[in-house]
Design goal:
By secondary structure, the protein is mainly alpha-helical. Helix content is 60%, strand content 6%. It is built from 12 helices and 6 strands. It has a two-stranded parallel sheet. Strand 5 (268-269) and strand 6 (272-273) form a beta hairpin.
Length: 298
């Protein structure tokens, strides 16, 4: 038998509820849930910093819009060949296609503009937003799971291929498919929790009837742990504004570097995974930020 352990998810459906022509998808539902929880927690943080609820609501609403625009624009730029051919798909975010690095960059830029307009320290806002952002990222990954997207490589992929500096997975996978069945049997499952996604999902279309790493769930768990560390530990340290933001950037960048090794469809920057390139740049930036602002308030 080719695959020893895996979970089938043929009954997975990206649609949460249908009411006549109205269709509510898990993807959009997770965004809505992230917004509701994030706004509630933002008000708690704002109260601790003596910032009015109305003011923080205004910031959060605009930051979310900036993040959504940035996340989509980043994804479209890295997939310009497809969107040049199908320009009407550019605004169709409900079909998936958001890049968190674009959301972070645009959200950060908007925070600078917002702070200058209101003559306040913008690091205060980014510190409020950082734990909420990574919590939203964790929640959002469940929507990706239900869509069967942001999936991993097959669970029989050798670790030397998964953790290669330059992504050699497809080169290896083409070689694997050229082998006889008996030769393919030499590649064993390396984890027992692979998932077979429906054939009409992105994961199922790329790897039909094949157990793959649930990369989106790896990130969900790691993002949630990062949120707990930011909200319940680092936020209590009373660092100068900007330090918490730097810690968030480093934590998420490390998470993304790790998870991207398992992902099959990462955006590319020449021969390298784009998330690796951007994450390394962000880690350098965040390290410098923390060093310059690491002293606690006395």
């Amino acid at each position: 038998m080719k695959y020893t352990y895996y979970t089938r998810s043929d009954k997975m459906n990206p649609v949460f509820l249908r009411l006549g022509p109205l269709e509510i998808r898990y993807y959009g539902l997770m965004y809505a849930l992230s917004f509701i929880i994030g706004l509630k927690l933002a008000k708690i943080s704002a109260k601790e910093k003596n910032i009015s609820e109305e003011f923080i609501e205004k910031y959060v609403m605009n930051a979310i819009i900036a993040g959504l625009i940035g996340g989509r624009l980043y994804y479209v730029i890295f997939n310009y060949k497809y969107y040049f051919k199908y320009p009407l798909e550019i605004p169709a975010v409900w079909h998936g296609g958001m890049a968190i690095h674009g959301a972070i960059i645009f959200g950060f830029l908007w925070s600078i503009v917002f702070a200058k307009l209101h003559k306040v320290n913008f690091w205060i806002f980014t510190d409020i937003a950082s734990p909420l952002l990574i919590l939203g990222q964790a929640i959002g990954r469940f929507g990706n799971f239900m869509n069967g997207e942001i999936h991993g490589v097959p669970t029989f992929t050798p670790l030397r291929i998964i953790f290669s500096i330059k992504p050699k997975f497809y080169e290896w996978y083409n070689y694997y498919n050229s082998l006889s069945l008996s030769e393919q049997m030499n590649y064993k499952e390396i984890v027992p929790w692979g998932i077979v996604f429906p054939n009409n999902s992105p994961a199922g279309m790329e790897f039909p009837n094949t157990a793959v790493h649930p990369a989106m769930l790896y990130e969900l768990v790691l993002n949630f742990l990062a949120f707990l560390s930011l909200w319940f530990f680092f936020k209590k340290k009373n660092y100068k504004p900007g330090v918490l933001t730097g810690i968030y950037i480093i934590e998420y960048s490390l998470i993304r570097i790790f998870v991207s090794f398992f992902r099959a469809e990462d955006l590319m920057f020449f021969d390298f995974r784009a998330p690796h390139v951007i994450s390394f740049i962000l880690i350098i930036f965040a390290t410098i930020l923390i060093i310059t602002k690491s002293k606690k308030i006395k």
